[in-house]
Design goal:
Strands 1, 2, 3, 4, 5, 6 and 7 form a seven-stranded mixed β-sheet that branches. Helix 1 (20-38) crosses helix 6 (160-179) and helix 2 crosses helix 4. The protein has helices at residues 20-38, 54-63, 68-79, 96-103, 129-140, 160-179, 181-189, 199-202, 212-217, and strands at residues 5-12, 42-49, 82-90, 93-94, 114-120, 144-145, 150-152. The chain has nine helices and seven strands. Strand 3 (82-90) and strand 4 (93-94) form a beta hairpin.
């Protein structure tokens, strides 16, 4: 197996410093790095702390203005080979800060990218949020989401089962990164996806005129 260098990006929506959300993301990244090294690969890790760009996200949501700090975070994801997306859970949902960040992303940015979903909460009652609330959003963004999601309530940190789940998720992420699926998919089947005008960093500029809506807009009739 040839040696590869992977870029891993952690997206943490924890609001405290330190935060359990960031801790879960860091533990996952450490296992990804160690497991990749065993397979002869090198992993470089970058971190996007969403609390540091909360004002930039608010600006983007109300005005569509992308500030330089927010653009830096977006570019990091665009260049990533793998992502760990970690959110605290409030009222049975990932935090608004977490959701807002992914809401402002170009819909084409993460197509095929490997992602591990992680969530933390103050009670085990929220254990299904990663799969029930977060996974559908990443399906909409067309990511290659790892089968194993992660969740940690206070009692989980001392439970060996958490480390077992982290190991399993890390293995899945390493294998997905090794596959190079995102790049191969973009090369071979990019045009088979539905894209918005101006998406993919402004590179998608083609307009399909052969639709009912466009025929009506140009004075014709729907088929």
């Amino acid at each position: 197996m040839s040696t590869e260098r992977f870029r891993l990006v952690l997206v943490s929506a924890g609001t405290s410093d330190p935060s359990s959300t960031r801790l879960l993301a860091d533990r996952t990244a450490d296992r990804v790095t160690a497991l990749a090294a065993r397979r002869g690969h090198e992993v470089t890790t970058g971190v996007t702390e969403l609390r540091e760009i909360s004002a930039d996200l608010s600006t983007a949501l109300v005005s569509q203005l992308i500030t330089p700090k927010l653009q830096h975070a977006i570019t990091a994801l665009a260049e990533a080979d793998g992502i760990v997306a970690a959110a605290p859970v409030y009222k049975a949902s990932p935090s608004g800060l977490f959701s807002s960040f992914f809401h402002v992303l170009d819909n084409d940015l993460l197509i095929g990218k490997p992602v591990v979903l992680a969530a933390t909460a103050g009670t085990a009652r929220h254990a299904l949020v990663a799969d029930d609330q977060m996974r559908p959003m990443f399906a909409y963004l067309r990511t290659m989401t790892a089968p194993t999601s992660l969740f940690a309530a206070p009692e989980d940190w001392s439970d060996p089962a958490l480390n077992t789940r982290i190991d399993r998720a890390a293995v899945e992420l390493v294998l997905l990164m090794e596959s190079g699926f995102a790049a191969k998919n973009k090369d071979e089947s990019w045009q088979s996806y539905q894209h918005e005008y101006g998406s993919a960093g402004g590179t998608e500029t083609a307009i399909d005129l052969d639709t009912d809506l466009m025929r009506l807009a140009t004075g014709g009739s729907a088929s």
